[in-house]
Write a structure and sequence with these properties.
This protein is α/β, with parallel strands linked by helices. The protein has twelve helices and 14 strands. It has helices at 17-21, 88-94, 104-118, 135-146, 164-168, 186-194, 222-235, 259-262, 295-308, 314-357, 384-394, 424-453, and strands at 57-62, 81-86, 127-132, 152-157, 173-180, 183-184, 205-208, 238-242, 272-277, 289-294, 362-364, 372-377, 400-401, 414-418. Residues 111-434 form the Aminotransferase class I/classII large domain.
């Protein structure tokens, strides 16, 4: 296993001009010094904790289970409740300003998780973690930290619609990398890079969702990931590994290692910036995510945070840490197993309805992670946008047309359906209405075709 971590100076080439001009917050950059034993700090304008009205905090949470029969119909894991109490010292921290990167206890817990799941030891130099208000908060900051307006970027196509504006708002030169049932296409990526115009700077980042990709639901194979890592080294770019569905993997094969893990076997380590999210497995409303990767890049993101929202709310970090400490790593992984089993059941119910109503009307590949079906509508126009936005809505069902997931826009016959919330009965009704929509579109197209052939009618 390689221990050749890229030096901090290597990442200066990946930072945007704005980032290189930005100076750290004069107060937040000195906050760590307040922990010096014996030091009397006159540094910050922290409010006095004695003025806060909150005096105690406790809550109940579900205990983790591996029994699928205990999975609740609305998306939760049912088991004996456990009580979590936040002690006075932790509560005081949760009510106060804290370190930009995150409260120390939560950072240590995430470090242990990354070692357990990805083989990254906290003792290894060159990498660290920062907590954000959801992983999307960190992705936005990472992109603005690394990418200059107008610069070229590599984006898997189709891709998560919520990230596209982050690049288009910067006026980036978008280069779409094809995807298929095995995830991102290394051949497509290689073709883009090996035919790159001489003298034109190559992209600094590649954005990809490798597990249960939103919208396609596809999971990148091991061979694809290794080839992408090789290309990252050969063509000198950073992989933005957005992995919110990593713990929602429910395939029968062994889980494929992350880019963050696989790069440890590379000749050089430090070309992956990984984003994890707790939104899908603990609570979307907590807004807790964390980024792991090269220390220099995380430090730049922290500077961005220090001048925008100062930090991720301490109280949500404290709540999260209280629960995670109560569960421990084994309990956390047991819980995520239960959540993934729940979504596997949801997927199976949805696919049963698709086989019942959409056979011959649509095409799809069964996802093995996440909460989405990406399906091709077999309609003459080859355009899902008008059909989904008008006809489907008129028929009482709402989905997303595939065009919103194309970085450069355009026409596609694909659409995305989320299966996370619906009951089996509503799933059957929704898919039946989608089938009616496709049939109506076919019939209407056929009628228009006959009218063109017989204009006198």
């Amino acid at each position: 296993m390689s221990t050749n971590f890229l030096p901090a100076t290597y990442y200066e080439q990946f930072l945007s001009k704005q980032t290189l001009r930005t100076t750290p917050s004069p107060i937040r950059s000195l906050l760590p010094l307040e922990k010096t034993p014996g030091l009397i700090s006159l540094l910050t304008g922290k409010p006095n904790e004695s003025t806060f009205p909150f005096t105690s905090l406790s809550f109940t949470a579900r205990g983790p289970t591996k029994n699928p029969s205990l999975l609740g119909p609305a998306g939760g894991v049912r088991n004996t409740d456990i009580k979590v109490t936040i002690d006075s010292e932790d509560l005081a921290m949760g009510l106060q300003y804290t370190d930009t990167a995150g409260i120390p206890g939560l950072l240590r817990w995430f470090e242990g998780l990354q070692e357990k799941m990805h083989g990254r030891k906290a003792s290894d130099e060159g990498w660290r973690i920062s907590v954000g208000a959801g992983s999307q908060d960190l992705i936005y900051k990472a992109i603005n930290t690394m990418v200059n307006p107008g610069e070229p970027v590599l984006l898997e196509n189709p891709m998560y619609a919520g990230v596209i504006p982050m690049f288009t708002d910067l006026g980036c030169d978008l280069h779409e990398v094809e995807t298929d049932a095995e995830g991102i296409s290394a051949n497509s990526l290689r073709q883009i890079l090996e035919t790159w115009p001489q003298g034109k700077p190559k992209p600094k980042v590649l954005y990809t969702v490798p597990y249960g990709c939103n919208p396609t639901g596809m999971t990148a194979s091991l061979s694809r990931r290794k080839e992408v890592l090789k290309l990252a080294r050969e063509h000198n770019f950073i992989i933005l590994e957005d992995d919110p569905y990593y713990y929602l993997y429910y395939g029968t094969a062994e889980r494929v290692p992350s880019y963050f893990s696989l790069e440890l076997d590379e000749p050089e380590v430090g070309r992956v910036l990984r984003f994890d999210s707790l939104s899908k497995i603990l609570s979307a409303g907590l807004r807790i995510g964390f980024a792991s990767g090269p220390e220099r890049l995380l430090a730049a993101i922290d500077v961005y945070t220090g001048t925008s929202n100062l930090q991720t709310p301490s109280i949500t970090q404290t709540l999260t840490l209280g629960l995670l400490n109560k569960w421990g790593y084994d309990g956390f992984l047991t819980h995520t197993w239960g959540v993934s089993a729940f979504y596997r059941q949801k997927r199976d119910v949805f696919e049963q309805a698709m086989n019942k109503h959409l056979k011959d009307l649509a095409e799809w590949v069964r996802p093995e992670a996440g909460m989405f079906f990406w399906f091709k509508l077999n309609v003459p126009s080859g355009d899902s946008n008008a059909i989904i936005r008008t006809k489907a809505f008129e028929n009482g069902v709402l989905a997303l047309p595939g065009t919103v997931f194309l970085p450069k826009g355009g026409t596609t016959s694909y659409a995305r359906a989320a299966f996370s919330l619906l009951t089996p009965g509503d799933v059957d009704k929704a898919v039946e209405r989608l089938a009616k929509t496709v049939k109506d579109a076919r019939r209407e197209q056929s009628t228009r075709g006959r009218l063109r052939v017989h204009p006198m009618l």
